[in-house]
Amino acid sequence: MKILIADDDLLSRRLLEKTLQRTGYDVVAVPDGSAAVAQICDPDGPRLALLDWEMPELDGPEVCRVIRGHKDLGYVYMILLTSKGLKTDVVAGLGAGADDYLTKPFDTEELKARLRTGQRILHLEGRLVEAREDLRFKATHDSLTSIFNRGVIMDLLGREVSRSRRESIPIAIVLCDLDHFKRVNDTHGHLVGDEVLKEISRRLLLSVRSYDYVGRFGGEEFLVILNNCPAGSTAGRAEEIRRMISSSAVQTNAGPLPIAISIGVHQTDNWGAATLEELLHEVDSALYAAKAAGRNCVKFAKPTDSVTAAVSTAIQLV
Ligand code: GH3
Ligand code: MG
Ligand code: MG
Ligand code: MG
């Protein structure tokens, strides 16, 4: 584990360095408080620090104060080394944000024991952060497919439509619904249906760019937001998505299954005053039109210019 030693006294710095290296620590040693802050603020910097109280520029307690002020840093366990044994000093050091202190001259075994305490705290913090990230993922992603859940994709839709309105950036709202999916469940069982949903989600993610969004809108319906998607390329992009799903069978425990989707699209850079519900209603109507036209095709809610209209018509004719 990485550990930082900040001490302006060369001899005691070297001594500490040797002792801790022998104990197995990966030691970074610096001669002043500013260098200590710089090391700790490095994303890969040490999370365990031994800080001399008296140092030029920033002293130990000031380093603690600066580090505690950085809200985006992970937890840093800081021990002050001091020749000050007065209670008032100790209280001031801990008040500045130190976790512990050792009075010089200190006993090596005591130092090691206190560092082990620090490691335990850091380990615990690591597990808490992991648990929090895990919860965050579960709260924002669909448990079956691991893509964004309905709540998140709806929030993103609201945000992107607002941005599109504000900056006149064209975006496309794409609603995809698997064709005759009930038959998959009825013929092969729900678990095979689940396998299909997972694979379709994977293919949807593969078919979009890194700044587009894909979420599970409902059972076998997926909402895709194509950001910065001009009218001239929307039909082609939607067609790419459709092809990505239907071009090869999905491999399942019941064997390869051909799957197709119908797609409704609403594209513009001028959303007027329509509410999200109204926009989704438009996309849903387009999806309904795709189903009515025989499925496995793309339909537009309202072609916003002649290019989209022309390509859309061409696709419908294929
Ligand atoms: P259409 O082409 O008109 O969309 O027909 P469809 O059969 O796909 O549509 P329908 O709405 O009749 O059926 C959707 C099916 O999706 C019914 C439901 O059981 C299934 N479904 C929804 N969520 C899940 C899921 O999480 N896992 C599985 N296996 N099936 C699901
Ligand atoms: Mg000093
Ligand atoms: Mg459906
Ligand atoms: Mg369906």
List keywords for this structure.
about 325 residues; alpha/beta; Alpha-Beta Plaits; elongated; binds 3'-deoxy-guanosine-5'-triphosphate
If helices are DSSP runs of H or I spanning 4 or more residues, what is the number of helices? 11
Radius of gyration: 30 Å
Indicate the CATH topology of the largest domain.
Answer: Alpha-Beta Plaits
> How many β-strand stretches?
12
- Which overall shape is indicated by the principal axes computed on the Cα atoms? elongated
CATH-level-2 architecture of the largest domain = 2-Layer Sandwich
Structural class: alpha/beta
The low-confidence runs, each spanning 5 or more residues with pLDDT under 50, are 304-314
Say which CATH homologous superfamily of the largest domain is assigned: Reverse transcriptase/Diguanylate cyclase domain
| Largest sheet properties | 5 strands, parallel
N-to-C SSE series? EHEHEHEHEHHEHHEEHEEEHEH
Distance from N terminus to C terminus (CA atoms, Å) equals 63 Å
Mean pLDDT score? 93
Hetero groups in this structure are: 3'-deoxy-guanosine-5'-triphosphate, magnesium ion
